[in-house]
Write a structure and sequence with these properties.
Number of helices: 6
Order of helices and strands: HEEHEHEHEHEEH
Distance between the termini: 39 Å
Strand content: 15-25%
Largest sheet: 7 strands, mixed
Radius of gyration: 17 Å
Shape: globular
Length: 163
């Protein structure tokens, strides 16, 4: 009887892990195609461009997002540690900001990540982004190994899952 109870508990724990943090994409899936604009207004499929080559971290971000600002020191530390082994892609959402406001912000506050603008919501839909400060980490096979939301995410631990 105890064995069955233990198996049931482990099954619940395993299924919870498969849902990641109960936000966005499930673990193990590959995100759908997502065409956005780069800062020069060129269309780029950020899934095809980055997924399946090496680990990649996607952050859904906005200039006005307080959680994103709080998460920034962890993002910068992770970039310093993993740059060259992991791609860092930041997707500016098209809610209460424009590409021009994004570019002005980045000119005043330069950041080392690759920035794109999701003016149509294609990336938000493809990655099932529930809000800004949402992070998705893919492994080198292009599969989700982490999703999270909010300012207290352990970016280093999330990236270790992808390596």
């Amino acid at each position: 009887m105890r064995f069955l109870a233990t198996v049931a508990i482990l099954s619940v724990i395993a299924s919870a892990e498969l849902r990641a943090q109960d936000v966005g994409l499930n673990l193990g899936v590959a995100p759908a195609s997502a065409v956005v604009q780069d800062t020069a207004l060129r269309s780029v499929d950020i899934t095809a461009t980055y997924a399946g080559k090496r680990p990649v971290l996607y952050e859904f971000w906005a200039t006005w997002c307080e959680n994103c600002a709080a998460l920034l020191p962890r993002m910068e530390a992770a970039y310093q540690k993993y740059s060259g082994r992991v791609d860092f892609v930041v997707v500016g959402v098209g809610v209460n900001q424009t590409l021009n406001s994004m570019k002005r912000h980045l000119a005043q506050h330069p950041l080392p990540f690759r920035f794109y603008y999701d003016n149509t919501g294609a990336a938000v839909r493809a990655f099932e982004a529930p809000a800004t400060s949402y992070i998705v980490v893919l492994n080198a096979q292009g599969r989700v190994v982490y999703t999270g939301l909010g300012p207290d995410q352990d970016i280093d631990a999330a990236l270790r899952r992808g390596l």
